[in-house]
Amino acid sequence: MRQFVLSCESTIDLPYSYTQERDIPVLFYSYTVDGKEYPDDMCRTPGSLDRFYSLLDEGKIPSTSQLNEFQYEDFFAEQLQKGDVLHICFGTGMTTSYSNAVIAAERMRVKYPDRKLVVIDSLCSSSGYGLLVDAAADMRDRGCTLDETAGWISANRQKVHHQFFSTELKFYRRSGRMSGAAAAIATVLDICPIMRLDDGGHIIAYGKVRGKKNAIKETVCTMEQHAQGGVNYSGKCFICHSDCLEIAEATKKAVSEHFPDINGEIRICDIGTIIASHCGPGTVAVFFFGDDRAPEKSGR
Predict the structure, then answer these.
(1) Three-state SS string across the chain, please?
(2) HSE (CB half, 13 Å, CA atoms) of 212?
(3) Gap between the Cα atoms of 166 and 170, Å rounded
(4) Residue 160, exposed/middle/buried by CB under 10 A (0-12, 13-18, 19+)?
């Protein structure tokens, strides 16, 4: 018997089948295009991700919103009927949903005084958030208590590195994150911005290289600098991508060759519709455990 319920949100960017296998209930985000709302499907419905990218190809700009208190209350009520709950939220560097989760949790503790409900800000995003939830699931399955797991997550959430690059800048121009002229010049020169998450979970663009091969090389180099154990890193590693599987596979090959002691197979996942609504296609990200993530102004 598991001692507590571990739950999360759909922005972990792991397949829904994974959460089913690991017995992790999920609260789903959604995105809106032309007034129509679509669920962040986690690939539950065949073709849902293809439909999303078709909308982007048509020039549509999806909008996303935070989860509200009532969505959290309904979700928590369902989980608390099963037992004590540890809920890990999408990082506050990406959304303010966590504050609504905290308010909802306070109300639920009044309604369920005999249950424990702990809500943690992951300070993570995408499959980095997924990597943290995966670690929590491993602890739960080893028999760790809710408090032990929550304490470890709080102490180690800033050690989950999010190292990523973009090979497609058209969407940055469409969404207003980059001027048309800058995007056009970068595209002609085959410039790939290099980015990371800082200690608060915010996206920081700190460098740029020319070409996909150099972007992969820079990613591997940065991982060596920060991964626990350097080239002897023996933790798990996840990779995700937004509609650029070939580049993700090339990145996986480079990481596998450089870090032969990685724990298990490197998992490649799709970036979900919520994150992809903001980054567009052509992004590849690598996630691993390392030293504490640096603040915004301290470089890498």
Answers:
(1) CCCCEEEEEHHHCCCHHHHHHCCCCEECCEEEECCEEEECCCCCCCCHHHHHHHHHHCCCCCEECCCCHHHHHHHHHHHHCCCCEEEEECCCCCCCHHHHHHHHHHHHHHHCCCCCEEEEECCCCHHHHHHHHHHHHHHHHCCCCHHHHHHHHHHHHHHEEEEEEECCCHHHHHCCCCCHHHHHHHHHCCEEEEEEECCCCCEEEEEEEECHHHHHHHHHHHHHHHECCHHHCCCCEEEEECCCHHHHHHHHHHHHHHCCCCCCCCEEEECCHHHHHHHCCCEEEEEEEECCCCCHHHCC
(2) 16
(3) 10
(4) buried
Q: pLDDT below 70 — which residues of the chain?
A: 1, 169-189, 297-300
| pLDDT tens readout for residues 18-61 | 999 999 999 999 999 999 999 999 989 999 999 999 999 998 98
* Token representation of residue 37: 């709302």
